[in-house]
Design brief:
Radius of gyration: 27 Å
Number of strands: 2
CATH class of the domain at 10-47: Mainly Alpha
Helix content: 25-40%
Strand content: under 5%
Largest sheet: 2 strands, antiparallel
Order of helices and strands: HHHEE
Structural class: mainly alpha
CATH topology of the domain at 10-47: Histone, subunit A
Strand order of the largest sheet: 1-2
Distance between the termini: 64 Å
Number of helices: 3
Length: 104
């Protein structure tokens, strides 16, 4: 195994932190530059592994999601729930608008 040294500069870390809106101390910038560089070097080594004939795998347990059909049904406590809502119109909850000042 050989070292590739795909180093990430402190300036690169600053740019990434700015994009992610993270505030890092100079010590954190240096530490992250070193840590991320090690990870990138390792990924470069992994990219060199011959995977010819290896089938793509998304998981190894062979488990599958068991999905049931989404069938609407009446709630047993619908009236009690509606009675607790602060503002109702035609038996539906009214909430403030997200993109305007309207409530409906």
């Amino acid at each position: 195994m050989h070292v590739i040294n795909m180093s990430l500069s402190v300036e690169d870390v600053r740019k990434i932190a700015k994009l992610a809106r993270l505030e890092l101390s100079p010590m954190e910038e240096k530490r992250y530059a070193e840590t991320i560089s090690v990870v990138l070097d390792y990924m470069k080594i992994l990219n060199e592994v011959d995977t010819t004939g290896v089938e793509s795998t998304s998981q190894v347990t062979k488990l599958q999601n068991i999905m049931r059909e989404d069938i609407p049904r009446d709630s047993l406590i619908r009236k009690e729930l509606i009675a607790q809502m602060p503002k109702v119109k035609m038996e539906e909850l009214i909430v403030p608008g997200v993109f305007n000042d309207d409530e409906e």
